[in-house]
Amino acid sequence: MIRFAYLGALLLALGGLAMIDHRWRLAFWDAPRRAAACVGIGVAGFLLWDVAGLLLGIFARGESPHMTGLLLAPELPVEEAVFLTLLCYNALLAWRGIDRALVARRARAGGAVHR
């Protein structure tokens, strides 16, 4: 059970982000295709970065009893892809939330809303 602790924590955090997204309709509950493209492109870019780092010997996989041991590629644990998804989703929600807050602030101040 301890082998899935990190993956479980990542999935729990993703679930929390999904609840925030659902509540304020920031990404997947607002524009699912755009959100999936944004997160997917971000994850793919970071995975390519990781693979390049692994091939160059810059990165290495550390051993931990909290990780599943499942690998996407040599030295690339499955938890890395889930973490990168969490990172990209979090960034997208932050961006959308800040944008929405600024638009609402401008509207309250009586300024023109430009989109």
TrEMBL record:
State if Cell membrane is listed as a keyword. no
Q: Does the keyword Protein biosynthesis apply?
A: no
Q: Where located?
A: Membrane
What pathway is this protein said to act in by its record?
Carotenoid biosynthesis
GO biological-process terms attached to the record: carotenoid biosynthetic process
Q: Write down the membrane topology.
A: Multi-pass membrane protein
Q: Which UniProt keywords are present, listed alphabetically?
A: Carotenoid biosynthesis, Isomerase, Membrane, Transmembrane, Transmembrane helix
Q: Which GO terms describe its cellular component?
A: membrane
GO molecular function, one example? intramolecular lyase activity
Check the record and name the InterPro entries matching this protein: Lycopene_cyclase_dom
Q: Which positions, given as ranges, span the membrane?
A: 6-24, 36-61, 81-98
The name of this protein is Lycopene cyclase domain-containing protein
What species does this protein belong to? Cellulomonas pakistanensis
